[in-house]
Design goal:
This protein is an all-alpha fold. It has 2 domains: about 20-280, no CATH class; about 280-400. About 65% of the residues lie in helices and about 0% in strands. The protein contains 16 helices and 2 strands. The protein has helices at about 20-25, 30-35, 40-65, 70-85, 90-100, 115-120, 140, 145-150, 155-195, 215-220, 225-230, 245-255, 270-275, 285-310, 315-330, 335-400, and strands spanning about 70, 260. Helix 3 crosses helix 9. The radius of gyration is 29 Å and the shape is globular. It starts with 18 loop residues before the first helix and ends with a helix. Bound molecules: zinc ion (2 copies).
């Protein structure tokens, strides 16, 4: 069964290089020997939410989307705090995230769940393909040498925090306080890429499959309003309404009162009211996702059909048949009178069956090929029309709002 969007051959997990990543998941279990203290539990909670703030407010809303401004010192603090979450450097993180928004849920999206749920959750991070930072994608911040240094030495922050955790609360402090919170934080962050494109509601018709989820917003400090975010990514606030809990934004708001950050962008009221699925806006993102799924299913069905028709996988069928006349001629060569006649007849029969089989196979294959080409073209045309329709709806709505 193939995924809705096929991954290119170079998008594969490097299992050997990923061993440390999996081992870190097991480290908190060593607390069986050291015991768990209340200090270590408090440290775990503080380090989880503390660092989640740096990821959401720093790596995501600041470095990826420039949704507010700050001074150079606090900018470095955001980069260092985010790096302490062991999710690589700010420039790596933000440049890859920008690609996700540019190509959301298409073949070029790094981590669309349509390429496989686990791929979107964690697989892409463990692939060689996405290891390096493309500094050209993030020129606006790679001009600061201190940010480039922190990005290149992304181990400094997590190691410092790990040692500090040990000094504060001993071995339980390191195992539970630091490592457990780091693992939880990884998966907390990853759910935004995976679950937030699968579970939840869609308020806005966007070109992707993003969803809003209150539950995800609790453990990601406001990132759960992912459909809001894809709709208006420039906003520093992702919970668009008072009932949409967004703790990262509340903290940013407080920091703006004391002048640490400024110019927090928020969506205008008319933007918040527009493009709603509920109001009949054509939901191109979901339409395309269903389309991809249907196309993949059809391809699978076509392959299954071809195999059923031929009774064997396409590759295996030919050598098997080529081998059989050899067996027949071997028996022809045997010097026994009456059997030779039977053997000759058998050979004729075998060759006839072989020709028959091969021509039937060619017929089925060419019929499938031409059917598939016609279907593909038909699907592509329909999809293009749907995209145009969605664009027209958006333009129409924008004009309506402007009047
Ligand atoms: Zn984003
Ligand atoms: Zn997304």
């Amino acid at each position: 069964m193939s995924t809705a969007i096929a991954r290119p051959a170079d998008e594969r997990v490097n299992w050997t290089a990923s061993i440390p990543f999996f081992l870190v998941h097991l480290l908190p279990l060593l607390a069986i020997f050291t015991g768990v203290t209340w200090q270590s539990v408090v440290l775990c909670v503080v380090l989880y939410y503390g660092r989640m703030f740096f990821i959401t407010a720093g790596y995501h809303r600041y470095f990826s989307h420039k949704s507010y401004k700050t001074n150079r010192v606090f900018q470095s603090m955001l980069a260092f705090g985010g790096a302490s979450a062991a999710q690589k450097g700010a420039l790596w993180w933000a440049s890859h995230h920008r690609l996700h928004h540019r190509y959301s849920d298409t073949e070029l999206d790094i981590h669309s769940p349509q390429k496989g749920f686990w791929w979107s959750h964690v697989g892409w991070i463990l692939a060689n393909k996405f290891k390096e930072t493309d500094y050209d994608l993030i020129k606006d911040y790679s001009k600061y040498p201190e940010l480039v240094w922190l990005n290149k030495h992304d181990w400094v922050a997590p190691w410092s925090l790990g040692i500090a955790s040990y000094l504060i609360a001993g071995w339980p402090g390191l195992l539970i306080g630091f490592f457990l919170s780091t693992v939880l934080l990884w998966h907390g962050t990853f759910t935004v890429n995976s679950l937030n494109h699968v579970f939840g509601r869609r308020r806005y018709a966007t070109t992707d499959t993003s969803r809003n989820s209150a539950i995800l917003a609790v453990w990601t400090m406001g990132e759960g309003w992912h459909n809001n975010h894809h709709y208006y990514a420039a906003s520093a606030r992702q919970g668009f309404f008072w009932w949409e809990l967004d703790v990262s934004y509340y903290i940013l708001k407080m920091l703006s009162w004391v002048g640490v950050v400024r110019d927090l962008k928020v969506p205008p009221a008319r933007v918040k009211a527009a493009a709603r699925v509920r109001d009949g806006q054509f939901d191109i993102g979901m339409f395309r996702a269903q389309w991809n799924k249907a196309t993949a299913t059809l391809t699978d069905a076509g392959q299954a059909l071809a195999q059923n028709h031929l009774g064997a996988p396409a590759d295996a069928a030919v050598p098997e048949l080529v081998a059989s006349p050899e067996l027949v001629s071997a028996s022809v060569g045997a010097p026994s009178g009456p059997t030779t006649v039977t053997a000759e007849a058998e050979q004729v029969l075998a060759t006839a069956t072989l020709d028959d089989h091969a021509s039937r196979r060619d017929q089925v294959e060419s019929a499938l090929r031409s059917n598939k080409a016609a279907l593909d073209e038909c699907l592509q045309n329909a999809l293009r029309q749907a995209e145009e329709f969605a664009k027209a709806t958006r333009v129409g709505q924008r004009q309506l709002l402007a009047d």
